[in-house]
Write a structure and sequence with these properties.
By secondary structure, the chain is of the alpha+beta class. It has helices spanning about 1-35, 50-70, 75-80, 85-110, 130-155, 160-195, 255-265, 265-270, 280-295, 310-320, 335-345, 350-365, 375-385, 395-400, 475-480; strands spanning about 200-210, 220-230, 235-240, 300-305, 320-325, 325-330, 390-395, 420-430, 440-450, 455-465, 490-500, 505-510, 515, 520, 525-535, 540-545, 555-560, 570-575. Helix 1 (about 1-35) runs parallel beside helix 4 (about 85-110).
Length: about 575
């Protein structure tokens, strides 16, 4: 009878815990939406902070119940029973982590959720006191998410039942994502005061990348401006077109043999080619050297890279800007800047002037505080996640804090890391603006794990969305003005696949046929390089396999050059090692 009673009690407790966890997840999802989008719930009588407070209280009630039911001696007994012990332990860990997050991780964020706008630009600057005031609760929340991520990573889920294993993996992934986001936010808030001139004037080079002529980090450096910051006040300094910096007779910095082998001297002789390398710190060094050689009166403290799609995300949240009678919105800015302008203004000098005006107007629009705070944060966070926005500081302590974050854009060269990195880059070799019509998908999956070495299977499809009569487009677009290397209307793309540090790239095929890609190395990583020629409407399929280095048994980071389309193939490749 005692055994039957214990079984019945255990069954009821398991049911009650599952119900509480389901309720907690539902409330956490609604809370996240309320914090990200103030109108997510649609309650006209409650503002965003009130909605978040209601959902947080419900989440805490549900998580408290689950934690309480799994913390007693009887549940501990269940963790030692055969067949169900591992699952019971996993449920208890999940309950405790969720309760910690609800109590100590989310509450500080909810308390300051209605103050996000205070740390964004307004009336030409940023209130540094507000940034300092908000940094403490954000750092406190970040510490909780970091502990939660570490606890979940330490949990052995290899013997969980399939259903629990799937839900646990999903929860662990969500917490890991939240931890990365909170770490990035906390780091940014700790660095903002210094980078905005709290300790003295700062100068940052803002580079707008033009995705119509694709580069590894996003696009050709088009409109470029120096930004001056002092005590949070922001102003525009010098503005030039990237192309106006021309070509130097020798590289502005010594190039490594690997760089010369892959990119030739143009990586260091042309400002607009400095970001053919996906290594943002290196590209920033090259850009700074060229800028300071051209303008010795401006010493740079940092470089900020953003692309046209990022501008679209910001305009979606902050509203349109009008330049020379053209109204640019989040919906049309990519088409207008990356294609329409070339049709409307045939003279490249007029194009450069228009782009410069757009950059200045968009910057002024942003620093004057248009739009809502959460929306702007959401837009910038999306751009960083899609590898469309990067920051490099030339102050060692600041760069050390940025290191390892997505916004730093570093190539992982250490073969001893557990999380390998796979990088797929695109560089225009047409010498034109045909990348506006370039489309591609990249998919990488882990397929096996042997003695701590992971194998990967990868494929990519490139195609041209150019119309059949693309040859009739203006010569500046097609490259038929003497700068291009292919027939008008076609485009030539250099694709480089960089495998994990210490790993290897194996067989590569084009259209299912084996091909001999050019093999080289960069920063200790294997590189396979090939040229893809695309006629209007043509599709080309690539495939290859890779393996990581010994001990690289964690999830892999996939970095892919962003295109003119919203979204990105960049993300995380789930590990298969257990």
């Amino acid at each position: 009878m005692l055994v039957v009673g214990l079984a019945a009690w255990s069954g009821w407790q398991a049911y009650a815990v599952a119900r509480s966890l389901d309720d907690a997840v539902d409330h956490a999802t609604t809370l996240r939406a309320a914090l990200a989008a103030p109108d997510a719930r649609g309650d006209e009588d409650l503002d965003a902070s009130a909605v978040a407070a209601v959902e947080l209280e419900a989440l805490r009630s549900a998580s408290d119940d689950a934690a309480a039911r799994t913390s007693g001696a009887t549940w501990s007994l269940l963790t030692h029973l055969p067949w169900i012990g591992d699952d019971a332990h996993g449920v208890r860990t999940t309950s405790r982590v969720l309760d910690d997050i609800a109590r100590d991780g989310l509450e500080p964020l909810v308390e300051v959720s209605d103050r996000v706008k205070e740390m964004l630009p307004h009336r030409g600057g940023v209130d540094l006191a507000a940034v300092d005031d908000l940094a403490e609760p954000v750092a406190a929340a970040q510490a909780v998410f970091a502990d939660a991520d570490a606890t979940l990573r330490a949990e052995d889920d290899s013997d969980f039942t399939d259903r629990l294993a799937d839900r646990f993996a999903e929860f662990r992934g969500q917490v890991a994502e939240a931890d990365r986001a909170m770490t990035a936010t906390s780091t940014a808030m700790s660095l903002l005061p210094g980078m905005l001139g709290a300790d003295g004037p700062r100068t940052t080079l803002l580079v707008f990348q033009n995705n119509a002529e694709i580069r590894a980090t996003g696009g050709l450096p088009g409109a470029v401006m120096s930004l001056h910051a002092e005590d949070g006040a922001l102003s525009i300094g010098r503005q030039v077109a990237g192309s106006s910096l021309g070509r130097t007779s020798e590289p502005v910095l010594p190039l490594t043999p690997a760089e010369r082998d892959q990119y030739g001297d143009i990586l260091g002789t042309y400002f607009v080619d400095a970001n053919m390398t996906p290594d943002v710190p290196r590209a920033a060094d090259l850009m700074r050297a060229r800028w300071e050689a051209a303008f010795p009166d401006e010493r740079l403290d940092a470089v900020l890279l953003i692309d046209t799609v990022t501008l679209g995300y910001v305009l979606q949240e902050n509203g349109p800007v009008t330049v020379d009678g053209v109204t640019l919105t989040g919906d049309n800015v990519v088409d207008e800047l990356l294609h329409g302008t070339y049709l409307r203004l045939p003279d490249p000098a007029d194009q450069d002037d228009f782009f410069a005006d757009v950059a200045a107007k968009a910057f002024a629009h942003f620093v004057d505080g248009a739009g809502d705070g959460p929306g702007t944060v959401r837009a910038l966070a999306r751009a960083v996640a899609e590898r469309r926005a990067f920051v490099h500081s030339f102050h060692d302590e600041e760069q050390a804090a940025l290191a390892g974050s997505p916004v730093a854009g570093e190539l992982v060269a250490d073969p001893d890391v557990a999380a390998p990195q796979v990088t797929v880059t695109m560089n225009d070799t047409t010498g034109a603006k045909m990348s506006y019509f370039l489309r591609y998908d990249v998919d990488v999956r882990a397929t096996y794990c042997t003695d701590g070495v992971q194998g990967f299977s990868a494929k990519a499809r490139l195609w041209s969305a150019a119309p059949a009569d693309a040859a009739d487009l203006p010569a500046y677009v097609t490259g038929a003005n003497g700068r291009g290397y292919v027939d008008a209307g076609s485009q030539l793309v250099t694709v480089r696949v960089m495998g994990p540090a210490g790993g290897r790239i194996k067989g590569m095929t084009v259209a299912s046929k084996p091909t001999e890609a050019r093999r080289t190395h960069q920063a200790g990583r294997p590189v396979a390089e090939l040229y893809v020629l695309l006629e209007p409407g043509q599709k080309v399929d690539l495939a290859w396999t890779m393996r990581g280095g010994p001990g690289q048994d964690g999830d892999a980071a996939l970095w892919v050059t962003p295109s003119v389309e919203q979204g990105s193939d960049a993300g995380t490749v789930a590990a298969v090692c257990r």
